[in-house]
Amino acid sequence: MTKLKLLIASSILGLAVVITGCGKKPDAALPGSPALVKVRFQTDWFPQPEHGGYYQALAKGYYAAEGLDVEILPGGPNAQVMASVATGRADLGMTNGDDVIVAVARGLPIKMVGAEMQRDPQGILFHTEHPLRDLKDLEGKTVMAGAGSTWIQVLEKKLGVKFNLVPLLGDLARFMNNEEFVQQCFVTNEPFFARQRGAKVGALLIASDSYEPYRVMFTSSEFLGKHSEIVGKFVRASVRGWVDYLSGDPAPANQLLAAKRSDLSPEFMAYSIKAMNDYQLVSGDPKKGEAAGQLTAARLEKQIKLLQEVGVLDKPVAVSDVATFEFLPKTH
């Protein structure tokens, strides 16, 4: 199953931790040791490789080593991750960083605590018979995409690119029947299924120097205020899980994922992992000083300014309103 419906449902709404003793599985809590602290983590979609770092941390005991008993709550088309976290149905969640900024401007009491990905995996799927070099090549084309998506407003209002927009549907039928058709996708997902059906396709990442949102881990202001130590432990273990999942053996997480979803083939999971590495989604670009888990005030300030310029913020917000940096991994 693809994730296209997520784009509609959520339209409003980084260095690896230096790990000593890598490769040794941490021990789970021993009899007589303090009880693990229950933490509920809400994902944005059904279990999939794009959540692999969290499942790796769970499978290899990284959360348990921090004293946490983490329950990963699967999402779906109507997950409403930010609302779940803000109202306490979940303790932490994951989503697009821009969604958090917009939500905070609308009064939702949530805050970013770390980056899941250095850039969002949303992209544009195209047939290689009609290739796209960059987003400006969308000029004059018909694009199936999520109405109201921030990147569309950035493209139109900031870069001056005009195109015809058709509502995003949750399948590839129209794309497969028209070689000139382009549509919004996740670079970690839809290209695999289009190729599986015989199409020759490419995918252009929407993220660019002009528009480059993080995908983030976040929590509510209330949970952060009462349980900052737990948040720090969760972020630390999650980043460790992501680094291990993408640079080590992903089998522990993949086994958990496959147990939850029978439609996740080994080939698809391998494709998603390769895409995350090829696009440097989690690790980031070392030449830019990016790293797993990292958030920077300068980049968030740039994103806030851009969102203000294109008119999607209800009121001005500061970096300190949308993020805290106290839990980020140390860089070198």
Q: What's the gist of this structure?
A:
With 332 residues, the chain is α/β, with parallel strands linked by helices. The chain is 36% helix and 17% strand. The protein has two domains: 4-120 and 213-322, Periplasmic binding protein-like II (D-Maltodextrin-Binding Protein, domain 2), CATH 3.40.190.10; 124-205, D-Maltodextrin-Binding Protein, domain 2 (3-Layer(aba) Sandwich).
Shape: globular
Order of the strands making up the biggest sheet:
2-1-3-10-4
The first-level CATH class of the largest domain is given as Alpha Beta
CATH H-level name of the largest domain... which superfamily? Periplasmic binding protein-like II
Number of helices: 14
CATH fold title of the largest domain:
D-Maltodextrin-Binding Protein, domain 2
The main β sheet shows up as:
5 strands, mixed
CATH architecture of the largest domain: 3-Layer(aba) Sandwich
- Structural class estimated from helices and strands: alpha/beta
Helix content: 25-40%
Separation of termini? Answer: 40 Å
Approximately how much beta-strand content do the residues carry? 15-25%
Q: What oligomeric state best describes the polypeptide chains here?
A: single chain
Order of helices and strands: HEHHEHEHEEEHEHEHEEHHHHHH
Q: For the CA atoms, what is the radius of gyration?
A: 19 Å
